[in-house]
Amino acid sequence: MTRLAICPGSFDPVTYGHLDIIQRGAKIFDHVIVAVFNNQSKDPLFTVKERMKLLEECTSHLPNVTVDSSSSLLMDYAKSKNAQAVIRGLRAVSDFEYEMQITSMNRQLYEDIETFFMMTNNQYSFLSSSIVKEVAKYRANVSDMVPKAVEEALALKFK
Q: Per the annotation, does 70 bind a ligand?
């Protein structure tokens, strides 16, 4: 049986913190689908297609990782893919409370899919897509926060 995990997020844009979780998840699971979800409570800088393209570029070295998108509920999407797990990254204790609420709701919706939390590498624990966008908007250096393709895409958006 193939162990399939979904790594969901808005990835607006993908950061080294996201990639840390994706790469480590790819070592544990046979296949990881990085699923771009459009969070209605956020005003995205990049379109879903742009985010997918950036993720595909940044994960092209991982043969067991694919990129997809969905506008459905995470648990409906995971069921449709026959996933066994969801991978979620945690940066700090403050993330845990929110993630616990989401995981509890997901378990109510579909109890057969397990959620795995991974602590991000300490060097990325301060990173968020929001912070990266704010820094990039003022044309500051984000090369330590995002891959080159993302850095270039941000520069074009804020030109």
A: no
Peptide bond into 147 cis (omega under 30): no
Mean pLDDT of 135-147: 96
70 is catalytic: no
Dihedral Cα 25, 10, 63, 150, nearest 10 deg: -120
What pTM did the predictor assign? 0.94
pLDDT digits (tens, 9 = 90+) for 91-133: 877 788 888 899 999 999 899 999 999 999 999 988 999 999 9
Look up 61 and say whether it is catalytic: no
Catalytic residue among 51, 70, 129, 133: 129
CATH topology of domain 4-157: Rossmann fold (3.40.50)
Tell me which residue of 68, 74, 62, 19 sits closest to 48, measured CA to CA. 68
Angle at 13 between CA 23 and CA 55, to 5 degrees: 45
